[in-house]
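U., I forgot to send this yesterday:
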Amino acid sequence: MSIDQSRLRIAVVSSDATARTRLMELAARSGHEIVELAAGPDAVLTDDAIDDPIPAPAVAIGSVEGDFAGRLPLDATAEQIDAALRAVAAGLIVRGPSSKNHNFAPLAEQVWPVLTPREIQVLTALRDGLSNKATARRLGISPHTVKFHIESLFKKLGAASRAEAVAKGLKRQIVEI
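Result:
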């Protein structure tokens, strides 16, 4: 799917008509075209659980149950929503700040490194307890490449072991159980 960088096709899903109108206005304010869910959108914006298969990556606003590529708090700005929609349409995962992250921890603890999609896949394999060879088979890459990604993960996460890398990935919500 080719994505126009200036304008995305966005489907808005909400069971509340007022909330749906508000979300449509936020998406339209960023210059996006609002389309129906069946029209093949580039991304979906919702504040509601979606039971049917979603035809595109979705950004959920608020504490919505479900597996969404993007999650933002209820008070997300139009700019944050625009950035999240563009990111999920490009295949990235977006997680907004959660209330448990609002503390007085040192800044260094809150600035998290950016992991590549492949590093996230390798971290997920580590979470699943796979060896380098099994990870290589799962991802279709060489064991040497897996080792390179693991070393990069250790460096970026400040981890000394596989278990510590997974623990830090879980704590930072990079991977989930």
